Amino acid sequence: MSESTRWIQIVVGVICMIATANIQYAWTLFVPEIQKTFGWDRAAIQVAFTIFVLVQTWLTPIEGYFIDKYGPRVMVAIGAVFIGLAWILNSQATSLMGFYVGAAVGGVGVGCIYATCINNALKWFPDRRGLAVGLTAGGYGAGSAATILPIAAMIESSGFQSTFLFFGLLQGGLAFVAAWFLRSPEKSEVKVSEKVFQTRRDYTLKEAMSTKLFWLMFLMFICVVTGGMMAVAQLGVIAQDLGVKNFKVDLGFVAMAALPLALMLDRIMNGISRPLFGWISDNIGREKTMLIAFTLEGLGIIALGYFGHNPYAFLILSGVVFLAWGEVYSLFSALAGDAFGTKHIGKIYGVLYCAKGIGALFVPVGNLLMEATGTWATVLYTVAAMDLFAAFLAIVALRPVLAAHVKRSTIEPPAAEQSRQGALAGA
Hints:
- By secondary structure, this protein is an all-alpha fold.
- It contains 21 helices and two strands.
């Protein structure tokens, strides 16, 4: 195998992710136009986005089963059809239910493509899983950057229905064509890492879920993703309450209000974060990288609550927060591959990824905390505590548990082999 073969797989995966990203990241451009056209309450329209996130997240274990069974080509091709269909449905919708159905269809499509491309990166790069998954996830996190302006321009010139239809066909078609270039590696085409703890066997979903390591990872994932989603989801309201939302920040080469500038920084930092921390974890280990990233996230949020009234501090610290949060999607997926092998990783990471869905359900708690205490500082400090708790677990609990798990997996044969040996012994 030439080194270029597996890098081609990463490039194709990133193309699929870019074609998929706008369902989530460009939605905000359509909402005002939908409201203007139909006169519906904005909160009612945004229910579509909630439906999308829940479907995309909670169906991942089922999609993981089909990924492991049918491989990447079929799953991405199906996902491409679904994302194209979702935008076409949105272009024809004249009721809230129409947009809700479009959101659900889009959630299935994005789930199929996102989970498959992450899965494929894990399989091709056991020696550089963090970097490979980070680049792939970064394609989704920053993939909308190149198309946001064309979509906004077409909405302005041709209306949102035509834009939904055109970009649905374009993006769905691009992902569908790219799908047929994907494939899983043969065993002879991959090599294990010598720098991080990695199992030498493939766990089934049942076996993985029976380990202490799986549930420790699940708890840590919930802590970090919940904190990050709370901070991101409420950033606009926090900026308003801190009095910096409309402050004009002049950086010399650009001058704009603090909040949109911070949101733009979010896209950039999210794109950088995933491959950066993934690459670091390939070299120093996942658990040490988690300690660094989660601590940085926690301290950044504490500083945001303390210094956020200064618009320049708000801008810098929100950038730090976004930089330290985006990496969860590369670190936990890479760690799952290290710990449980890749034969059943679609199902295993699919269940682990449900932590994001649980985190999404906790996001409204931020509003309740703010209303109960009268300040966003309480929310920010709670979020920071969750991040620092996860950082503490990374080094105190995860490191020894992972080491023991990997050591055990190298001396214990898989369950099927154990059963065969038991049968032979009893014969």
